[in-house]
């Protein structure tokens, strides 16, 4: 309905507006209705990753450097939600470079974030440089588990840690690993801290299912 309304407005006023004003109008609508900066940066990240050296080992770490900008902050330090946004872009790059996205396309499958947890240890302040270390830690029957670490450049302290559960749809992590490595790949050991988080999600799912039956 909104698209039809916008087209009607454009039709009525197009003859009275010059091309520059029409372009500005389109940009205004785009920025009001869409997170344009997110999509532009995502496209740039995919393009950048495409020309980077491939990561052959799926569990190998990727390091990206960045800096806290004015659009990232509240009260002069990085907003909590911005950490997850940065993890999105780092994950796009990592999974492009290590071939997981290519494998998903080849297997006609897809992936979606099923859960995330973040621990904020120390704020990253305006203008502060940091490194973002990302890696695939392990996998199970249904999902890959990734870790993102925000490392302050001034003293190398881990400022925040984010775990991501990336659910695989219409195939399995084992099939993706076999597609990439051309052989069966044994699962790697799950770290203790990640085991606790996976256990929490399992117990929480059982609790929610029980609540659904009661209602």
Automatic annotation (TrEMBL):
Signal sequence region: none
Residue spans crossing the bilayer: none
One family name in Pfam for this protein: 4HBT_2
Entries under InterPro entries matching the protein: HotDog_dom_sf, THEM6_lcsJ_thioesterase
Top-level division of the source organism's lineage: Eukaryota
Family: Belongs to the THEM6 family.
Protein name: Protein THEM6
Species in which this protein is naturally found: Gouania willdenowi (Blunt-snouted clingfish)
């Amino acid at each position: 309905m909104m698209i039809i309304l916008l087209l009607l407005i454009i039709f009525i006023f197009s003859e009275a507006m010059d091309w520059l004003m029409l372009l500005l109008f389109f940009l205004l609508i785009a920025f009001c209705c869409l997170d344009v900066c997110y999509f532009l940066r995502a496209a740039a990240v995919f393009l950048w990753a495409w020309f980077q050296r491939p990561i052959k080992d799926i569990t190998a770490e990727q390091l990206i450097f960045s800096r806290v900008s004015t659009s990232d902050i509240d009260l002069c330090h990085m907003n909590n939600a911005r950490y997850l946004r940065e993890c999105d872009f780092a994950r796009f790059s990592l999974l492009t470079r290590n071939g997981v996205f290519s494998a998903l396309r080849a297997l006609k499958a897809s992936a979606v974030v099923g859960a995330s947890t973040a621990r904020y240890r120390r704020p990253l302040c305006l203008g502060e440089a940091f490194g973002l270390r990302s890696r695939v830690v392990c996998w199970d029957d249904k999902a890959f588990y990734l870790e993102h670490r925000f490392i302050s450049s001034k003293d190398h302290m881990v400022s925040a840690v984010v775990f991501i559960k990336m659910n695989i749809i219409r195939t399995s992590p084992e099939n993706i690993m076999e597609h990439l490595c051309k052989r069966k790949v044994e699962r790697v050991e799950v770290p203790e801290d990640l085991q606790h988080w996976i256990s929490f999600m399992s117990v929480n799912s059982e609790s929610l299912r029980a609540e659904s039956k009661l209602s």
